[in-house]
Structures are given as C-alpha cells and as structure tokens.
C-alpha cells in the first residue's frame, strides 16, 4: 500500500525526477544513523547551552533515548539574537550581498540537502518515527523544492515606482524586516524548517530558529549545511529547546522584529500575546485545524475513499491540515464507510524503517496518551467505533488506525484537533447543510470536496471558510501555492509569492521631481530627424 | 568534429596551452547533429588573424522547415515538454547554467577566437552574464502566475499564462553567447520551443551551447540551433507560416524586414532589439575623471560594437575642453592586439564589411568638419583593427552624429542648458539607452524622465543586469528583454470563464 501513498503524492511533487523516487529506487536505510550534531548553532559555531543543560531526544518507535541535545534557554536566545542582529547590521556582508547571490546560497543549500537525502531521511525517521520511505521520497524532496523555489525569488521581489499626485517621484523598496524568530513543530521537522528559512532568507532577513524538543536532530544537521554552503555567520541560528523557556524568550524578546510560529492554536494565542506585551513584533501563525472533507454522492467512490484515507492517516494523522471531519452524503454513506474501514484495516503499522510500513509511531508519549484519551471520549459520547481504537504494539507509541462512524457535530472528536490516526465520518444530506456544518468550527485551515459536478465544486470551494481547498484531491502541496488559515487556524500565509509578504517591510521613498520636468513632459514628443 | 589547438597567454607570465575542441560544427535539430540539406558549408574566421577556424554546416530554408517540424512536435499538447512541471523547466535551466559554468573557460576561449573580443572580457562579462541569465529565468519558471479575476456576473474567471509556441530567434555577432542566453532563457522558462539562428560570423559558442542543452536533458526539439545567413535562413524563419513568434536582435534596417515579414506571413509576434545612437550627457557638476572614464568605456567597450554604445557624448561647455583632452588621452592609451593576450584592451572589428563601414564614417567625420583628436584610421595594414578615434566639435547634423557607427569612434558635442541637451539628445529616431552624469539629484531626475530611451543610467554607463529590463523606444526596438518584463514577450494569456450558479465575494 506504500505504493499507493507514493503514487498519489509523488506525481505532484516531482516531475522529471519521478522515476528516481519509485519505491524500487529508495536505498536501504541505515536504521541507526550516526548523530553528528547535538549542540546549539549560533554565529555559525556549535555551542553548549549557557546553563550547560541538555535534554534527551527519544526514538518514538522504541521509547529509547537517541542522544542528549543542548537545551537553549533565555541566555542562549540573547546570544543568538545578538549574532543575528550583528549579521543584519547596515553594511554587513549579508546586507550588502546581491539578491541573486542570496538566491545562489539557497540553491546551494538545496543541492547539499539533495546530496544528503538518504542520511537526512534516516535521521528524520529515527527522531520523528515517520516511515523512511516517506521521509526519503516526500519530506526531503519537498524541502529541496521549497528552497529552490525561494532561491529563485531572491532577485525577483520587486518594489514599484508609483505615479503619485504632484511633482514627486515615488518608489517602494522591499526591505527585509530584520531578526526573525521562528518556532517550528515536530510533525515535519525538515519541511517546516525549509518553509520558514526559504522566504526569510530569500528576502534578506536573519533568523533565530527554535526547533521542537521532540525532533531537533535534522535541523541541526541542516545547520551544518548552512555553514558549509557559505551563509555568513549569524544569518541563521538554530536553538533546540523547550517552548516555555527558549520559545517564550524569543516571542517576548525586545530585539526580535518578527516571529513566525507553527504549532497549536493554544500556543498561538500565547505568541500573539507576547508580541503585544513586548515590542509589537510582527506575527505570523500556522495553527491547528479540524478540516472538513466533503464527499458528494456523485464522486468517484474508489478515489474518494483512498484520498480521504490518505487525508487523515498520512503522517500518523499528525497533520494540521488532516481531513478529520469526513462528511459523506447520505446516499453513499454506507458504502463509503465499508470501504474506508476495509482500507484502514489493511493499513500497515510498524517499524518505520521497514519499506512496507505505512504508519509509524506517534511522536511521543504525551501525544500518544492524548490521542487514546480522544478515542475514549468518542466511545463515551456515543460514536460508533468501526475499527481500531487501541494501542498497536507493546513498545513505542503505536496506535491502531481508528474509524468512528455516526459522529455528531457536537462530539469532542468532531470539534477538537486529535492529531492522530483517528478518522471521523459524518453523514449529510444537502449542499447547503454541509457547507454550514463544515464552517461551524473555530478553525479554517483546509478543506476538500469530492464531486464530478463543476458547479457543486465551485459552490463549495467558494463557501468554505478555509485557507486551502482541494477539489478531488487532498494534501496536494507545492512550494508555489500559498498555505495558511482563516480564523483560529492562523495569520498570514506561507509558501508561494504570498509567503514573501510576511518577511518584508515596504519602504516608500518620495522625492520632489523638479518643476521643469513638468514643462518638458507637457511639451510633447520632440520631432525626429529621420 | 574538429580539434584545433591554439596557444594563448592567460597571464602575463604564464604560457598556457589550451586544447579546445569545437564540439559542434553542424546543424542542431531534435537534439541531433545534421548536415545541411543543400550540402553547403560556411567558413568561420578568427577576425584577429584572418585564419579559417573551421567550416560549419550552413542552414537554409529546407533546414528551417525541418527544425520547425521538430520544434512543433516538441510543443505538441501532451509532449514531455508540455507536460513537464514548471519547476522542472527551471531545474533544466539551472543545470544548463551549471554546465556553462563548468565549460566557462572553453566557451570564453571560443568566443574570443570567433568574435575577436578580449578573452578576459568574454570570460568575466559575457560568460558571467550568460550564467546569471540562465539562473535568473530558471527561477522564474514556476513563478509566471496567472490571476483569478472578479468579473461581473455569475462567472468564475482565471487566466493561464501559456507559452506562445515555436519561437524563431535571430541573434547578432557582438555578444554571441550572451545573446543566445538572453533569447533562449525566457523562452524556455515560459515553456516555448526555439529555433535560433546565430550570426554567420560567430556560430561556434551557440553550437557548443547546443551540446550543453542536450547534456542538461532538454527534450529533443525544444531548442534547435541553425547557423546560417540572414537572407536565407533568417528570411525563412521570419516568413515561416508555422513559427508563432520571432525575436530579433540586430540592425534597425533588418528589424524593419523582420516586422514586414511577419505582416506578409502569419502575423507572428515580433520583438526587436535594434540599433542606437545613444546620448551620454555630462554636466559640469559631475566627478570629471570618473565621467571621462565611464564615457570612454561606454563607447569603446567591445570595440565599440554595442547597440548601447554611448556614441553621442554631450558635454556642458564649461568643462568641454578638459573633457575632450582627457578623453583623447584615454583613447590614445588603449592597447590594441591579440584579444587572448592579457593587457590588450581592444581587439579587431568583426569583419571586413564592418571595418570598411567604420572607416568610411570616420572619413565623413573629417570631411564634414569635426575635429579629429586622435586615431582616425586602420591600426595596421593587413588586419581588421581600427585606431581608437575621438572626434570633438561634432555637430548634430553630421553623419557621425546621426548614424550608428558600431566601432571605436567617439563623438563629443558641446551643450549649454538642460532643456537644450534634452531636445538634442531626443532628436534621433533611435531610443535605446542614455546616460547622465551629475551630482545634482534634480538634474538627474529631470533628464532621466525626459529622455526617450529604454534605459537611462545615472552616474554610470553600461550597468546591465539580468533582473533589469532592456529594450528600446522608437526605432530601437519593440518589447523588452531581461527582467520580469521579458516573460510577457513569451506568453499568451488565456482567460478562462466558467459559468457558476452563485457568485460570492
């Protein structure tokens, strides 16, 4: 079944290189990759934490400690911000660099990551638990593409000249914001790092990035590549650490100009608050979702079942855009349910380094317990457990692929983000009804509709309050298309050209244009001698 | 393929033997090498020595037909090229840039041998610009975005930016490999297919690029390179009924023919980069030494063979004598010689025809009463070198003030006031580029707004970059190359409108 996941995702994320990512071409992984870097990366140097503290990072497939990692705190954040500020100083090598050379550095970084694809995929799987085949053929290639995409933007982010009233010449400069704090989650550690670094560096900012404490390893390896390809010191600083200490220090720092956060809505609130209580730093947020996936009766059944399965179970259900409310039209509800259950039952759960594995462990014990708690609440509140519902292995954090039927909109599992392999299937009758119910949530990250009717597709895609709508597909990502949320799902957009806006200050420059210009302008064209 | 070994000096002290190989001397169609249908070949000379470098297959109408069929097939709906992700088109252009970088020394050597330009200039200017242009458009490929448009009524409208189709491209001999990149990069970035005719004087780097295009992995038929002459191969491209667009860089006289051919045939889209007689205005308040130096390189760069050449230097009267004196001094100090030798800063003109034309215009300058400050004739008897020449007291009605010379001949005129110089600068049917030297921001803005030219440089000249558009007002051309603007020249916009049942904001 791995092939199905791959064949559904790959054609969209790779083109001429399709063939090299077929399952057969994936190299046999080393399930115990060596960890080369476990310190803080500040000013292009590896440093211990000021406090000398460290924390363990765990292999979620076994629960065993992989290694200790230096733990950044406020003092380290201060050091990193200082380095980033110095790198951003007017006249610094980074500020004076041609935009095209910033692009070239990002391209070189993409090349270096591509070169080390197998190692990075191994490390990602070890630290995060996602199947190696996916790390290798989805996560890392998407990282490479994202960085290449933003490399191209570096010298194309153009200001304007503006015809204002009066005798003035007016133009805009698109300037970098400055020192950007970036806090990224553990569900796509490498990819989230690329989404954050790509636009920030293309536009000329400097970065202090805190990576999730669950998954610090790949980000630190990428830090070594950042140094290798030649980014000046201080441009990118990477700090493993905890949210309440290092994360909080970034968000309330008086010398950080902007903060970008991807994670839970709960923490998103804290970040916006911290900005308000400190220096009004610019804030962009990519937060949670409870995304509706609407299956109309005229949809291609096999395709809708497979895509809905993928929409929820991909990445162990640990996606902010997971299609976790599957609304199915009543006339096809039973058949859809039956086929979905069959599909979930056949899902291969196990060792993420095994090539046949579709689903690895959840990222840690906390998530594992939280998901099991939601499954209990579903049973308690009267949803019908169709399959799964329990632990899938005697060690590590594995959970059975679970489906609930007859889910009602008011149930906890229909309202809260579960972030695990638990699918809710709900029944609806009419178009208008389903749009209203789909929108009846505080979230607005993503949504999908499956139908062959172009008019229904358009009606629903216009009616849904969500930052991304997929029609007859799900989880189709490309670096070129923006991603972000309505309502409580976030603020601002990542990826695409839109992603650049969040890393740019626009400066308007006006200067008097001399009055004689007006006379000349009015005098009309001057005759040719030809 | 022919191997030629040449010796050249890379540094003043070290003699390097550079073995170079002419990778391509045939017609490149469908990623394959072909002999010409007519069986004809054309000779390629080294203008510095007059030696025959090699013979190259000469394309004519039949070869153009073959190439168009191949480009049309490559452009067919459903073809690998049409189905390719835009980002992968970008990746191919980036790979091509990497290959050019790898072969930079080879290409620069070929370029210097074939066109007579200074080797170090070819290496540092032409090849650098080539690599940057390919990378720049590599980045654009997946950023050529259509729009969704809030039309009135119950409709949903979006635009697709589609490639135009088969593009004919005809390039000149003054910057052979750089012009090649300027033309193919935006065309390929947008997904077109290309038939490109390099100048008959300088086909070698274009054919080497063809090898690299194949090596990078472009599908067959996407780029076809046809060395040949204007009146035969060029004419066939311009008149072809199955070529959707033509882009030409060259003389204004031929530009008119190209436009006419489009009108006579299938109304193919036309973009033109043509000649110039570019004013370079020097005010008394500028940094004089710097302005002299910039005006000098603005004219003499590339043996004066630039459409951008600042060939009418207008100098404010209070600094006129000093400016002329220093300019003549600079011109006299120029070192002529073998373009492969470091320290040489002027090579030969491209061919006998250009050489004769330049000398004829120099004679007209003398005859019409301009003051010859230095130079004024051939450098030695049996070669294509011309002495760096400076004329002062040039008046606007002289031929050397009106016609494009395309050689190392600098005209210096005198002016009194801002308005006067603007009028005189614009009094030409050309409108390609212009320069202004002043420390006064008001004058700079006034003059730069008033000049009818596609590029205006303030306190600099020839400051080109791939991000910045390039093209001409009036008879200097039509459309823009480089920058985001060039993408428009290689896209058709398709508006798709879908009836919907209910519209909402």
Automatic annotation (TrEMBL), chain A:
MF-aspect GO terms: aldehyde dehydrogenase (NAD+) activity
Residue span, Aldehyde dehydrogenase domain: 46-509
SUPFAM superfamilies: ALDH-like (SSF53720)
Pfam families per record: Aldedh
EC number in record: 1.2.1.3
Domain of life: Eukaryota
Record's keyword annotation contains Oxidoreductase: yes
PANTHER family given in the database record: ALDEHYDE DEHYDROGENASE-RELATED
Family: Belongs to the aldehyde dehydrogenase family.
Protein name as annotated: aldehyde dehydrogenase (NAD(+))
Automatic annotation (TrEMBL), chain B:
Listed name of the protein: aldehyde dehydrogenase (NAD(+))
UniProt-listed Enzyme Commission number(s): 1.2.1.3
Keywords of the record: NAD, Oxidoreductase, Signal
Record-annotated Aldehyde dehydrogenase domain positions: 33-496
InterPro entries tied to this protein: Ald_DH/histidinol_DH, Ald_DH_C, Ald_DH_CS_CYS, Ald_DH_CS_GLU, Ald_DH_N, Aldehyde_DH_dom
Stretch forming the signal peptide: 1-24
Residues at the catalytic site: 273
Family, as annotated: Belongs to the aldehyde dehydrogenase family.
Keyword Oxidoreductase attributed: yes
Originating species: Hucho hucho (huchen)
Any one GO molecular-function label of the UniProt entry: aldehyde dehydrogenase (NAD+) activity
PANTHER family associated with the record: ALDEHYDE DEHYDROGENASE-RELATED (PTHR11699)
Enzyme class, first EC level, given as a word: oxidoreductase
Domain of life: Eukaryota
């Amino acid at each position: 079944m791995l092939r199905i996941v791959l064949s559904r995702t790959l054609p969209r994320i790779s083109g001429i290189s399709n063939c090299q990512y077929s399952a057969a071409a994936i190299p046999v992984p080393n399930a115990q990759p060596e960890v080369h870097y476990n310190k803080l990366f500040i000013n292009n140097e590896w440093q211990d934490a000021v406090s000398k503290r460290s924390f363990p990072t765990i292999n979620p497939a076994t629960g065993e400690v992989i290694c200790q990692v230096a733990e950044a705190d406020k003092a380290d954040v201060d050091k990193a911000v200082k380095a980033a500020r110095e790198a951003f100083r007017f006249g610094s090598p980074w500020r004076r660099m041609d935009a095209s050379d910033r692009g070239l550095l990002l391209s070189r970084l993409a090349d270096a990551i591509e070169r080390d694809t197998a190692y990075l995929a191994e490390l990602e799987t070890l630290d995060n638990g996602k199947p190696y085949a996916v790390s290798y053929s989805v996560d890392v290639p998407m990282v490479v593409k994202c960085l290449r995409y933003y490399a191209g933007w570096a010298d194309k982010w153009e200001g304007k000249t503006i015809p204002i009233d009066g005798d003035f010449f007016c133009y805009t400069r698109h300037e970098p914001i400055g020192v950007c704090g970036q806090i990224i989650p553990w569900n796509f550690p490498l990819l989230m790092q690329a989404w954050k670094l790509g636009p920030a560096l293309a536009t000329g900012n400097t970065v202090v990035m805190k990576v999730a404490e669950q998954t610090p390893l790949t980000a630190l390896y990428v830090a070594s590549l950042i140094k290798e390809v030649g980014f000046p010191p201080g441009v990118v600083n990477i700090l493993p650490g905890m949210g309440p200490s290092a994360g909080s220090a970034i968000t309330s720092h008086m010398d950080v100009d902007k903060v970008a956060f991807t994670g839970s809505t709960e923490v998103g609130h804290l970040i916006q608050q911290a900005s308000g209580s400190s220096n009004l730093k610019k804030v962009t947020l990519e937060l949670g979702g409870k995304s509706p996936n609407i299956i109309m009766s005229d949809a291609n059944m096999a395709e809708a079942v497979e895509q809905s399965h993928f929409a929820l179970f991909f990445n162990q259900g640990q996606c902010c855009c997971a299609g976790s409310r599957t609304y199915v039209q009543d006339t096809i509800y039973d058949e859809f349910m039956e086929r979905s259950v069959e599909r979930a039952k056949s899902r291969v759960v196990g060792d993420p380094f095994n090539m046949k594995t579709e689903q690895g462990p959840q990222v840690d014990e906390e998530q594992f317990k939280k998901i099991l708690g939601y499954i209990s609440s579903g049973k308690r509140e009267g949803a019908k457990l169709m399959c799964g519902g329990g632990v899938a292995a005697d060690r590590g954090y594995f959970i059975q692929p679970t489906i609930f039927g007859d889910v009602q909109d008011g149930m906890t599992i229909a309202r809260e983000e579960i972030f695990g392999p638990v699918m809710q299937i709900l029944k609806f009758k009419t178009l208008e009804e389903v749009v209203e119910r789909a929108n009846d949530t505080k979230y607005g990250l993503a949504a999908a509709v499956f139908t062959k009717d172009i008019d229904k597709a358009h009606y629903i895609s216009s009616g849904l309050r969500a930052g991304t709508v997929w029609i007859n597909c799900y989880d189709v990502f490309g670096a070129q298309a923006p991603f972000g949320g309505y309502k409580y799902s976030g603020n601002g957009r990542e990826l695409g050209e839109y992603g650049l806006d969040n890393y740019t200050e626009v400066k308007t420059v006006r200067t008097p244009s001399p009055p004689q210009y007006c006379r000349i302008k009015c005098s009309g064209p001057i005759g040719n001698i030809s | 393929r022919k191997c030629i070994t040449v010796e050249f000096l890379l540094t003043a002290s070290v003699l390097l033997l550079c073995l170079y190989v002419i990778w391509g001397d045939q017609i490149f169609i469908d990623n394959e090498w072909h002999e010409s249908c007519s069986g004809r070949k054309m000779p390629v000379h080294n203008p510095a020595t007059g030696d025959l470098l090699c013979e190259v297959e000469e394309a004519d109408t039949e070869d153009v037909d073959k190439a168009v069929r191949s480009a049309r097939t490559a452009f067919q709906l459903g073809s690998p090229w049409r189905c390719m992700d835009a980002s992968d088109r970008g990746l191919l252009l980036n790979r091509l840039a990497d290959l050019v970088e790898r072969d930079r020394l080879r290409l620069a050597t070929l370029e210097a041998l074939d066109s007579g330009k200074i080797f170090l200039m070819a290496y540092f200017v032409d090849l650098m610009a080539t690599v940057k242009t390919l990378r720049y458009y590599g980045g654009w490929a997946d950023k050529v975005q259509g729009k969704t448009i809030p039309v009135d009524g119950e409709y949903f409208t979006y635009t697709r930016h589609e490639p135009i189709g088969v593009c004919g491209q005809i390039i000149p001999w003054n910057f052979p490999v750089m012009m090649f990149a300027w033309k193919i990069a935006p065309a390929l970035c947008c997904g077109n297919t290309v038939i490109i005719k390099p100048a008959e004087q300088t086909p070698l780097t274009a054919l080497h690029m063809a090898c690299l295009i194949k090596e990078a992995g472009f599908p067959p038929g996407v780029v076809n390179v046809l060395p040949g002459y204007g009146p035969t191969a060029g004419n066939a491209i311009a008149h072809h009924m199955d070529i959707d667009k033509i882009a030409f860089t060259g003389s204004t006289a031929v530009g008119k023919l190209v436009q006419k051919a489009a009108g006579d045939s299938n109304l193919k889209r036309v973009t033109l980069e043509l000649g110039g007689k570019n004013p370079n205005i020097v005010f008394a308040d500028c940094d004089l030494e710097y302005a002299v130096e910039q005006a000098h390189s603005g004219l003499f760069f590339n043996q004066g063979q630039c459409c951008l050449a600042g060939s009418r230097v207008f100098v404010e009267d209070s600094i006129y004598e000093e400016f002329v004196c220093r300019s003549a001094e600079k011109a006299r100090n120029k070192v002529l010689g073998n373009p492969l030798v470091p320290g040489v800063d002027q090579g030969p003109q491209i061919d006998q025809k250009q050489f004769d034309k330049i000398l004829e215009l120099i004679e007209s300058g003398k005859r019409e009463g301009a003051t010859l400050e230095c130079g004024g004739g051939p450098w030695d008897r049996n070669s294509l070198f011309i002495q760096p020449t400076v004329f002062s007291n040039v008046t606007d009605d002289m031929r050397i003030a009106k016609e494009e010379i395309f050689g190392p001949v600098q005209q210096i005129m005198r002016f009194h006031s801002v308005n006067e110089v603007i009028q005189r600068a614009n009094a030409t049917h050309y409108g390609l580029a212009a320069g202004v030297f002043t420390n006064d921001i008001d004058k700079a803005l006034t003059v730069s707004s008033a000049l009818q030219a596609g590029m205006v440089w303030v306190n600099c000249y020839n400051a080109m970059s791939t991000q910045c558009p390039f093209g001409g007002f009036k008879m200097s051309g039509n459309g823009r190359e480089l920058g985001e603007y060039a993408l428009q020249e290689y896209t058709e916009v398709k508006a798709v409108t879908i009836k919907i049942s209910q519209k909402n904001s």
